From TrEMBL:
Belongs to the peptidase C14A family. This is Caspase family p20 domain-containing protein. Pfam families: Peptidase_C14. Residues 76-193 form the Caspase family p20 domain. SMART domains: CASc. Coiled coil: none annotated.
Length: 199
């Protein structure tokens, strides 16, 4: 099957499109091996906290467990999400970050990704974006890529427009996305460190 190299009618990336009101999904779960399908059945003990598309679904692994590399043969390469924080309420701007954003956009478009750009989001909006991404169906995607460009601190926190938040929330936000199970999840973090000095 021929891979589609274009995912929209224009070459423009999707920038700050409409976002959903739900936030990060965090639910207790366990998995058990189904020997007949060689898949993991996700059993949720807090089903009400999960997106509808994740309930009672079987994770289909396209790459054999003993393989030394991921299979990249599905219809789409995947989504490339860029969370670019240029302006902040209480800190200096990162104007040069727009150059990095453009470079990422061009490069990952050439690699076949659907590039989505989100600029200057509050923490609540970042949560909404990641929640929406988790609920999407990525079954025909090879992988997913996420870039975070922002200010940061030594304690593992990065900045949204309005406040700092733990970087690990970005890493764990896709945990309950069944259609990304067994697929590469690429995270690229570019941080301008903020130093706090006593007066």
């Amino acid at each position: 099957m021929k891979r589609r190299q274009s995912y929209s009618q224009t070459d423009e990336p999707i920038i700050n499109d409409e976002i959903d009101s739900n936030v990060f999904v965090d639910s207790t779960k366990c998995s058990k091996k189904d020997s007949s399908t060689n898949s993991d059945i996700i059993e949720n003990t807090a089903v009400g906290d999960l997106p509808t598309t994740s309930r009672n679904k079987i994770a289909q692994f396209h790459t054999p467990r003993d393989s030394s590399k991921y299979e990249m043969k599905l219809n789409r390469r995947g989504i490339c999400l860029i969370l670019n924080q240029v302006h902040f309420e209480d800190h200096n701007d990162r104007s040069a970050s727009e150059v990095d954003e453009n470079t990422i956009q061009v490069t990952f478009t050439q690699l076949g990704f659907e590039v989505r750009i989100k600029r200057d989001l509050t923490f609540a909006s970042i949560s909404e974006v990641m929640g929406k991404l988790t609920r999407e169906d990525h079954s025909d995607c090879d992988c997913i890529s996420i870039f975070v460009l922002s200010h940061g601190e030594d304690n593992g926190k990065i900045y949204a427009k309005d406040m700092p938040y733990p970087l690990i929330t970005i890493f764990t936000s896709l945990t309950n996305c069944i259609s990304l199970a067994g697929k590469p999840k690429l995270f690229f973090i570019q941080i301008s460190r903020i130093s706090f000095q006593n007066d």
